[in-house]
Amino acid sequence: MSLARFLVKRALQGVLVVWGVVTVVFGLRFISPGDPANVLLPPDVDPQVRQQVIAELGLNKPLHVQYFEFVAGIPVGDLGLSLVTRTPVTGRVLSKVPATLELAIAATVVAVVIAIPLGVVSATRRHEPADYGATLFSLLGISTPNFWLGVMLIIVLAVQLDLFPTSQRPIGLDGVFGLLVAGQVGNAVDGLLAWAWHITLPAVTLGTYFTALITRLTRSGMLDELGKTYVRAARAKGLPETLTRYRHALRNTLIPVITVVGLQLGTLIGGAVITEAVFAWPGLGTLIINSINARDWPVLQGSLIIVAVGFVLVNILVDTLYAYVNPQVAFD
């Protein structure tokens, strides 16, 4: 199968996945407790005014009519209007995507930079102190709740030691690029440093579990590859041990690692809710929590749809990378 046919096939599958997410999320709106009108209106409002507001919001229409109107607007980027602010949902959701992507990618970079070398060291020094230390780190990383870790990092590193800020996002990478385009190199460098300073604690918090997972996966994969015949043959030919480990064994270990990295990147995009809430990071997670509290279902639906689309795109990208990491993998 050619790359073009593979991409078309996966795109069609992705459309079905997104449609399923849209249907489930839309259905949850009607079985969840709480009425948006109760949030928008005081308890003692006149019943006629209440019915008028419900009619203006379109909440009195039959379920199937609301569903088809909502689905019909998605292909053209119309996700409806916020029940609270009466502003387009698409603009509100897309404005939060850069902050969430920055946090997810930063957490992934932290995890990969730490985990792969740690996993290689653990595998090549099996049953040594370095191996035991890496195993203990993985166990602690997987077992530690990220919300608790985030609070502890804030208390110790931000409050007591005053090494990092406690919250907020002073400037995004889009703002940094805008300064570079405008020729303000000095301000762009300062903005980039401020961004890195503020995102360090959230990225470490979000990426700790991911780091532990990749460490264990790299270790088990390296142990499996180092025991295979081609590694013994490479050593028998007199190849340097470093070349054998990193050029051959590690490369063959990267297939499952890439799979997990891709899947976890999509998970991080949708799973940063707690981390964003702890650090007041203005991304999709914060928007989702605020939408749930306000019963603002159009904004919540739009946020979850964007998360689903991001997850699908990441998975397609990961599957495409397989062929470049291992030519034996075909597009099927």
TrEMBL record:
Location relative to the cell: Cell membrane
Gene3D superfamilies assigned: MetI-like (1.10.3720.10)
Chain ranges of the ABC transmembrane type-1 domain: 97-318
Membrane topology note: Multi-pass membrane protein
Record field: transmembrane: 12-31, 97-120, 132-159, 195-214, 254-279, 299-318
A GO-annotated cellular component: plasma membrane
Xref: InterPro entries: BPD_transp_1_N, MetI-like, MetI-like_sf
PROSITE patterns: ABC_TM1 (PS50928)
Pfam families noted in UniProt: BPD_transp_1, BPD_transp_1_N
Keywords attached to this entry: Cell membrane, Membrane, Transmembrane, Transmembrane helix, Transport
Superkingdom assignment: Archaea
GO biological process, one term: transmembrane transport
The family this protein is said to belong to: Belongs to the binding-protein-dependent transport system permease family.
Protein name (record): Peptide ABC transporter permease
